[in-house]
């Protein structure tokens, strides 16, 4: 379980998160929704400790991540896979090299062991035959799959998805949503999905949490969100339905 306890994040005088609280249930998929700029992606970076909290605690597997030392932090990050909004692949490296990069940097594995792991992860996302291709030669959907394969490299218990279907056409979005679902069920990972796409929310998530003005104003099942009496959630969902 991940516990977010009264976390605040400020950039100078700009308050992004203010004493926000949330519990994320192990092995479930949670969609974090809210207006643009409300701190959704910031929260993912805070969970991964790519940024520091202004105040509050994030507890992952009973560990306060703010107390982790340098070596502990490296081990901690291996338990969490991150899929970035724009894939964030190294343009100068092949698909295989992108997935292998962190394994080479942070393990003592042999090249043969790395090759086995990378091929396994590429196979899981349907790209086993694309290892020698450069990212620029891939479609947006395929680049996203490479990003997911890279996130799986260390067999994480938690996967963070930052806008996984933004910029993709509806058919490709559906394929990525199905992949997220399949991986969650097969690997029994905890998935945290930041998105504003209703199709992604409804297809991939067990629960939804609404972030507004720096706080989580409601969290519950997808069904509860659809039937919520909270005017902000109703407006968000209705606006998304009107666009589809």
TrEMBL record:
Highest taxon above the source species: Bacteria
ABC transporter domain boundaries: 2-238
Keywords: ATP-binding, Nucleotide-binding, Transport
UniProt GO molecular function: ATP binding; ATP hydrolysis activity
Cross-referenced InterPro entries: AAA+_ATPase (IPR003593), ABC_transporter-like_ATP-bd (IPR003439), ABC_transporter-like_CS (IPR017871), P-loop_NTPase (IPR027417)
Nucleotide-binding keyword on record: yes
Pfam families to which the protein is assigned, alphabetical: ABC_tran
Protein's name according to its UniProt entry: ABC transporter ATP-binding protein
The species this protein was found in: candidate division WOR-1 bacterium RIFOXYB2_FULL_37_13
């Amino acid at each position: 379980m991940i516990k977010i306890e009264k976390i605040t994040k400020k950039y100078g005088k700009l308050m992004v998160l203010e004493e926000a609280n949330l519990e994320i249930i192990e092995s479930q998929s949670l969609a974090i929704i809210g207006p643009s700029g409300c701190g959704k992606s910031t929260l993912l970076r805070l969970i991964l400790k790519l940024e520091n909290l202004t105040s509050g605690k994030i507890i992952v597997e009973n560990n306060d991540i703010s107390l982790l030392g340098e070596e502990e932090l490296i081990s901690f990050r291996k338990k969490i896979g991150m899929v970035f909004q724009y894939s964030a692949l190294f343009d100068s490296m092949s698909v295989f090299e992108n997935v292998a990069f962190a394994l080479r940097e942070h393990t003592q594995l042999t090249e043969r062991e790395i090759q086995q792991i990378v091929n396994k992860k590429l196979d899981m996302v349907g790209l086993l035959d694309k290892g020698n291709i450069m990212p620029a030669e891939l479609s947006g959907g395929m680049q996203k799959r490479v990003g997911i394969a890279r996130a799986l490299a260390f067999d994480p218990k938690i996967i963070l998805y930052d806008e996984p279907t933004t910029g993709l056409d509806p058919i490709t979005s559906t394929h990525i949503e199905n992949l997220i679902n399949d991986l969650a069920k097969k690997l029994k990972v905890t998935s945290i999905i930041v998105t504003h796409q209703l199709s992604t929310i409804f297809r991939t998530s067990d629960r939804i949490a609404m972030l507004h003005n720096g706080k989580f104003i409601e969290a519950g099942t997808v069904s509860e969100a659809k039937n919520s009496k909270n005017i902000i959630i109703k407006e968000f969902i209705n606006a998304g339905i009107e666009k589809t």
